[in-house]
Structures are given as structure tokens and as C-alpha cells.
Specification:
- With 203 residues, this protein is an all-alpha fold.
- A two-stranded antiparallel sheet has the order 1-2.
- The chain has nine helices and two strands, in the order H-H-E-E-H-H-H-H-H-H-H.
């Protein structure tokens, strides 16, 4: 069996891909729906398309594949696993971008797709960083932990997103793309570190 295919199967990538596809189909069905930002800061009116929010779910579901059932063995393997991990992240990102494009079949504007694809890359980067810092079982922590504050507090009284609320920005905002790119590239080059106790327990 191809080593990359074996790695994907051992980390339940097919199951995670199927779960992400369900999220994408739901986003396609609700393409015209927008998520209202809570009026905590006296906003006039601000909302985010469902398609731009869906990448958070992609990151949480696909982030489960960061866990390896052979964490100790991979860490001590004679053949470096860094290349496989990078291929894994690139493949997950391409999958998330393709899923982000599905709502375009239901009339999603290209600009919203571009923002969704950006968010998919940024949140997948956060998921991998979270797994490296806190263990693979907590790959969801940073994606959800950062999206919540962005949605609740990320828009100022002038009804414009704050500079740090990159995932609710439009695709035309260069700073949002830069932040997402930095997160993804950080995940790509970040060393895995030694297996944590929860990784060994899950193995």
C-alpha cells in the first residue's frame, strides 16, 4: 500500500472527509443564510455568510486526523515523518478548499468563496498548531477558541471588523489573508515535538 494512503487510513481521513462533506452540503443548502453578529457593542448591522463560517467546522472535523494511533512509533521512526505530515496538511487544505467551493453551485459569490477558502486554510493551521501545543485530542481548541471571540467581539462600534478578527473579514482585506497564511505556514513548519500523554493513551 502507498505510504501516504496508509497514513491517511490510519488517521481516519476518509471518515473525517465524509463528515466535512456533510457540513459542506449543509452550507450549500443554506447558501443565502447569514450569521448575525451579536449586538454586544451597539452594532448597526453586521453578519457573516454561513459559507464563511463553515471552515471552522472543517478544521474541527479534519483536525481529528492529526492524531496518530502510533504516535510513539512515528516519533522514533528511522524514516522522518515530517514530509508525510506536510503532505497531510496540504491534502487536508485542498480538501477544505474544494468543499468551500461547493456552495458556489447554489449561487455563492466568488468573493465569499475566497473568504471561505482563506478561512479553511487559517483554521486548519490553527488546528494543527493546537494539536502540537496541547495534544492531538485538543486540535479543536484554538479554532473554536478564537472563532468565538471574533464573532462576539470582533466588530467595532463603527460596524467594521477589528484587525485581529481576520475570519469575518471580506476576501478583499489583505491583512486577513496574511494572518491566515501565517497560521497555515506556521503549522506546516512547526515540529511535532514528543508525543504527549493523551496521544499515548489514545493510541
Amino acid at each position: 500500500m502507498n505510504p501516504v494512503a496508509a497514513l491517511a487510513r490510519s488517521r481516519n481521513v476518509p471518515r473525517a472527509a465524509a463528515g466535512s462533506l456533510l457540513v459542506a452540503l449543509a452550507a450549500t443548502a443554506f447558501t443565502s443564510v447569514r450569521v448575525d453578529v451579536p449586538d454586544f457593542r451597539y452594532l448597526v448591522d453586521f453578519s457573516v455568510p454561513v459559507a464563511a463560517v463553515a471552515p471552522v467546522a472543517y478544521a474541527v472535523v479534519l483536525g481529528t486526523t492529526v492524531h496518530s494511533p502510533m504516535a510513539d512509533l512515528e516519533h522514533t521512526a528511522a524514516q522522518p515523518m515530517g514530509a508525510y505530515r506536510r503532505v497531510h496538511l496540504v491534502a487536508l487544505t485542498l480538501l477544505a478548499v474544494v468543499l468551500s467551493a461547493l456552495p458556489m453551485a447554489a449561487g455563492l459569490p466568488f468573493e465569499v468563496f475566497a473568504a471561505s477558502a482563506r478561512n479553511a486554510a487559517g483554521y486548519l493551521g490553527l488546528a494543527v498548531i493546537s494539536a502540537r501545543l496541547f495534544g492531538s485530542g485538543l486540535a479543536w481548541l484554538l479554532p473554536l477558541g478564537t472563532f468565538g471571540p471574533m464573532l462576539l467581539l470582533g466588530v467595532g462600534e463603527d460596524n467594521v471588523p477589528e484587525w485581529w478578527a481576520w475570519s469575518i473579514e471580506t476576501a478583499s482585506r489583505p491583512s486577513a489573508l496574511l494572518i491566515a497564511a501565517v497560521l497555515w505556514l506556521t503549522a506546516l513548519v512547526l515540529p511535532p515535538g514528543p508525543p504527549r500523554a493523551e496521544d499515548r493513551a489514545e493510541a
